[in-house]
Amino acid sequence: MNKGSLSTVYDITSFGALSDGKTSCSKAFRQAIAAAVQNGGGTVYVPAGTYQTGPIQMESNITLFLDAGARLIFSTIKEDYPVITSRWEGAEGLTYMPMIYGKNVENVSITGYGTLDGQGEAWWKPFRERTLDHPRPRFVSFEDSSRVLIEGIHLINSPSWTLNPVRCSNVTIDKVTINNPPDSPNTDGINPDSCKNVHISNCHVDVGDDCITIKSGTERSTYKVSCENITVTNCTLVHGHGGVVIGSEMSGGVRNVVISNCVFEGTDRGIRLKTRRGRGGIVEDLRINNLVMKDVMCPIVMHQYYFCGEGGKEQIVWDKAPYPITEATPVFRSIHFSNITAKNAHAAAAFIYGLSEMPIEDLSFDHISISMAEDAIPGIPAMMNGVDPVVKMGFFCCNVKDVSFSHVTIKGHEGAAFQVKNSKKVVFISCTEE
């Protein structure tokens, strides 16, 4: 960036920021952003060096640009983070302000080549000890905003969810690297929530929870807004509980999703859809293709008995008997998988378990090859009552309807390659087992 020739570039060092990694630069960020806003917008420039700061409030028409060698270290002082009302895990409530935050803004960007360090250990410890007054800060979150770009940066050690746009439109997340320790709690990578027109591409995500998760709030949410028109492509997803996940917060619905050309390595599950009775919402029109997975516990999981979170142990969640169909009945339908290779799977090739009153409907699996690891480790494919650890199980399907398996190959499994229970209109075409 040739910042010297651009009058709309606001260098934080011109506003008093010091690159010693110790002096708070919060005031310099506020003043640089304010100066840019006063002139209609511009780029807040962070040159090479290490800068400590509290939370940064973004405004419309602002680009936060981190040059190569720039490093932002975020404050670990709880009092630096105002308490705001925001969505947290699917419902509105009081939370600590995200480290970078914008609400009702447009034309905003976080770009460049630098690193942002959330110093999450300072938040993970009190979270585990249950001593925090409010939920931890998310790393970067925009709410009710449009034309949001996050590109090129490296984010590490997020206190909780890393990138979390909420009720935003036209969001692009490109060439971003996210690294959170594998044992860090709830440090999801990229979580678009009730957003429209989201493009996630060319990212590397290695985190302590789900790598990418598509959400739309819970039944307790004030806003029932769908998440739709989402593309995830050309990403590498490592070590998380799930590679690309939908739910369990899906009360607003999720539709029109394409997941393609991605590599999964060491994630507990590859593609994972999860919900439960009472949550409602419709997940439909998903296309999932051209994926390679390695050392994944279970490559494909879809179920509607998810027991984690508030109310998850109630009978309505775990009961396998049919219940009346209402607006609170979740729906999975029109989901299509193709051209997927998974090697060294451990627990099962796939685990699919719909509701007895609302089967998972209109599924297809085309040109799928899954081989089990010789030294497979038992695992629990779905977090639902009554599911024990399994090892080298093939495809398991219960309560599904209108399903086709075409050119599906299962290798190294124990027992039947396909177990299908309480299901209708299931077709097999040129499937093999070895």
Please describe the biggest sheet, giving its number of strands, its sense, and whether it closes into a barrel.
23 strands, parallel
CATH superfamily of the largest domain: Single-stranded right-handed beta-helix, Pectin lyase-like
**pLDDT below 50 for ≥5 consecutive residues: which ranges?**
none
Number of domains: 2
Kindly report the CATH topology of the largest domain. Answer: Pectate Lyase C-like
Structural class: mainly beta
CATH class term of the largest domain: Mainly Beta
Helicity range:
under 10%
Number of helices: 3
List keywords for this structure.
single chain; Pectate Lyase C-like; seven-stranded parallel beta sheet; 434 residues; 23-stranded parallel beta sheet; 48% strand; elongated; 3 helices
Could you give a quick summary of the protein structure above?
By secondary structure, the protein is mainly β. It has 3 helices and 35 strands. It folds into 2 domains: 1-170, Single-stranded right-handed beta-helix, Pectin lyase-like (Pectate Lyase C-like); 210-434, Pectate Lyase C-like (3 Solenoid).
Q: How would you explain this protein's 3D organization?
A:
The chain is mostly beta strands and 434 residues long. It folds into 2 domains: 1-170, 3 Solenoid (Pectate Lyase C-like), CATH 2.160.20.10; 210-434, Single-stranded right-handed beta-helix, Pectin lyase-like (Pectate Lyase C-like, 3 Solenoid). It has 3 helices and 35 strands. It has helices at 26-38, 121-129, 315-318; strands at 9-11, 20-24, 42-46, 49-53, 56-57, 62-66, 70-74, 83-88, 91-96, 100-103, 106-112, 115-117, 140-143, 146-151, 154-156, 169-174, 177-179, 196-201, 204-206, 212-214, 227-233, 236-238, 242-247, 254-265, 269-274, 282-294, 298-303, 331-345, 348-353, 360-372, 393-398, 400-411, 418-421, 424-429, 432-433. The protein is elongated. The N and C termini lie far apart (56 Å). The mean pLDDT is 96.
